[in-house]
Amino acid sequence: DLDECAASPCKDHQYCLNTDGSFSCKACDASCVGCTGEGSEKCNTCASGYVKEDEKCTDIDECNLPEKVCTKENQDCVNTSGSYKCVCSEGFEDKDGTCVQT
């Protein structure tokens, strides 16, 4: 078997998997910017919104940072994978970018 992966035939956001007589390109984990294999522990570097922790790229919980990320009145922070979103608190709704009581 010829190791086609030695020539790095895959794109930057993929890793190469050598198979018998061939190869395939697999997508890197969402937490990675470039990778050497499957999973968040094989990242070259961590994507935005992720930090290297115990040799893995793990999600940063922006909602638990010392500095508040959702600063508008009556607004709550919701952590998402690699990011966060600001939503109006319960009993409030978004009216032109402001949370007003429903």
TrEMBL record:
Domain EGF-like, chain residue ranges per copy: 59-98
Superkingdom to which the source organism belongs: Eukaryota
One protein family per Pfam: EGF_CA
SUPFAM superfamilies: EGF/Laminin
PROSITE patterns associated with the record: ASX_HYDROXYL, EGF_3, EGF_CA
GO terms assigned for molecular function: calcium ion binding
Keyword field: Disulfide bond, EGF-like domain, Repeat, Signal
Family: Belongs to the CRELD family.
Protein name: CRE2A protein
Organism whose genome encodes this protein: Picathartes gymnocephalus
